[in-house]
Amino acid sequence: MSSRRLLANAVRALSMDAVQRAASGHPGAPMGMADIAEVLWREVMEYNPANPRWVDRDRFVLSNGHASMLLYSVLHLTGHPLSLEDIKDFRQLGSRTAGHPEHDPAVGIETTTGPLGQGIATAVGMALAERLLAAEFNRPGHEIVDHHTYVFLGDGCIMEGISHEAASLAGTLGLGKLVCVWDDNGISIDGKVKDWMGDDTAKRFAAYGWQVIANVDGHDGEAIAKALKRARANRKQPTLICARTVIGYGAPNKQGTKSTHGEPLGVEEIAATRAALDWAHEPFVIPEEIRAAWDQRPRGARAEKAWRRRFNKYQREFPELAAEFTRRMKGELPARWPQLRDAALAAAAGVTAAQATRASSQVVLNAIGPGMSELLGGSADLTGSVNTLRKDSKPVTPAEVSGNYVYYGVREFAMTAMMNGLALHGGFIPYAGTFLVFSDYARNAVRLAALMHQRVLLVYTHDSIGLGEDGPTHQPVEHLASLRAMPNLGVWRPCDAAETGVAWLAAVERQHGPSCLVLTRQALPQQTRSAAQQAAIANGGYVLIEPELAAGQLPAAIVIATGSEVAPAAEAVRAANAAGRRVRLVSMPSTDVFDAQDAAWRDHVLPRAVVRRIAVEAAATQSWWKYVGSEGRVLGIDRFGASGKAAALFEHYGLTTAHIGRAIDEVLAG
């Protein structure tokens, strides 16, 4: 038996033992890809297990995340801080070795994977980040950014449509440091994929502009090493290595069958596998000579030390660039952020005429963008509609990679997953826009951004029936409630330029999660505020209009509104107060930020004693009942929209000043 195979068998043994112990998991892919992992992690990739966050390390993404034990085994064997006890705790509550890899940079897990196809799309974002940073910071003789992004992916990733979106753009942009290894084993959960996947994957990726290395024996270490060398030599094209493997390799009675994909091998088959592999060791026992051969800490320390010598020379010659690079990779905001913040608020305050909040968003971007080199923009083929292009925007193209604006094309899902990769890589705060209704296409990538606590800024415009004539296919109804239901996702729906400015600043400053900025197509009037009210916007919900009250007196009723509905609500509340009704208007641009305030603020804005409440939003009513209670009312839309002029639609759906005024009368009469 070759030494390569023996070392790969350590991965197979740990993987099958951990899955068996957990009575749950996927042993087939780890056993099938073990030979490829041995070559990649021991000979090709550059990383330092003692410092998994080293900024110029090669990145690795396990897109076929069900093969998580492959990654856990390799991280453990190479010397990352992932212990044998962690391996034994596979899939247990609180374990670092979860059922699918969960982002944990402290142990070398670069991204959360599992929803198939997203891994490769995220990796495209990482590879783009590397290329953009290299173009911005490298200087002749000083290549401080120079690393590869490697991906393992399976048939499921190939089948998912997001792989098409991301691979197409990667080929167009010529991301030559992206290397993907396809586990071509022909098996998925339902069995042999030939009956439902008859396309020619090699030709498909070649058509995207990729270098394709076909028919590589995934169990021949020398063939794998040769393919990886060829992939690294091509800096102009991303590479797909088509590696033919046997799922569950080494399990004599089950290899090559669907039964190894997603269930333990079983005690008898594991015993037979040990014999077939000549692995005469107890479960979880790795002989010291094998551990020593896998340990990459010495090699990794040398690689990082060599890079640090290069960086020190760079720092001496280009101190300002070095300081900027260090700041960016730490995720710190620029030193002049307070001034940029003030400029953004001043720019928003300078908007006096009615304006769509998508246009107000661009005003804010123009104020902060030129001072934030990390702010990388883009859109899904809607640049002119979502207003994400700044005055300092420069497009990223195949010929010019030093830009700060990505034309993602009609690829909402891949765009969002790529933004996750850009954020995970470090050095960028990505933002990009599409219509709110198309957030459905991107939803699972939004979910992963929230799950991974990544600072990704999602600009969603055309936020309601207010977009008008495009009709119900383009008019979001359920989307706000759906997005608000997602844990760790910030959602802002501002009513004018002032709230839009605060929303943008909050999103940029929010380091541990994504934010949605939900903006209008139609123009909205600017609301009048005191300085205290302006400051209170940052609390997510605040009192915008207060009736005249005697000392200790509470309002008789409260109207809560967001976005485009604040203006008609304000007119209705003013009319009610002019008639002596004592009605408060609360603007609530962000329910999650409001909910995070202390009880004193929440009770100040929405006193518990005031039970007559109305919420107004041109969207599904579902998320508002918690604020109005059983005695309140919600004016919203619980059916699909219609084609027509915006004004006619608001009248049709009962969301005008007159409708809100009647609702106030009815609630007070009750």
Layout: helices, strands, pairs:
Blueprint: H1 3-22, H2 28-44, E1 59-62, H3 68-78, H4 84-88, H5 118-137, E2 149-153, H6 155-159, H7 161-173, E3 178-184, E4 187-188, E5 191-192, H8 201-207, E6 211-217, H9 221-233, E7 239-244, H10 267-277, H11 288-294, H12 297-317, H13 319-330, H14 337-349, E8 355-356, H15 357-368, E9 375-379, H16 383-386, E10 395-396, E11 405-407, H17 412-425, E12 429-435, H18 439-451, E13 457-461, H19 479-484, E14 490-492, H20 497-509, E15 515-518, E16 523-524, H21 531-536, E17 542-545, E18 557-561, H22 566-578, E19 583-587, H23 591-595, H24 599-605, E20 613-616, H25 625-628, E21 633-635, H26 646-652, H27 657-669
Parallel strand pairs: 1-2, 2-3, 3-7, 6-7, 9-11, 9-12, 10-11, 12-13, 13-15, 14-15, 18-19, 18-20, 20-21
Antiparallel strand pairs: 4-5, 8-16, 17-19
Written overview of the protein:
With 670 residues, the chain is an alpha/beta fold. Helix content is 44%, strand content 13%. It is built from 27 helices and 21 strands. Strands 10-11-9-12-13-15-14 form a 7-stranded parallel β-sheet, sandwiched between helices. Strand 14 (490-492), helix 20 (497-509) and strand 15 (515-518) form a beta-alpha-beta unit. Helix 5 (118-137) packs across helix 17 (412-425) and helix 22 (566-578) crosses helix 27 (657-669).
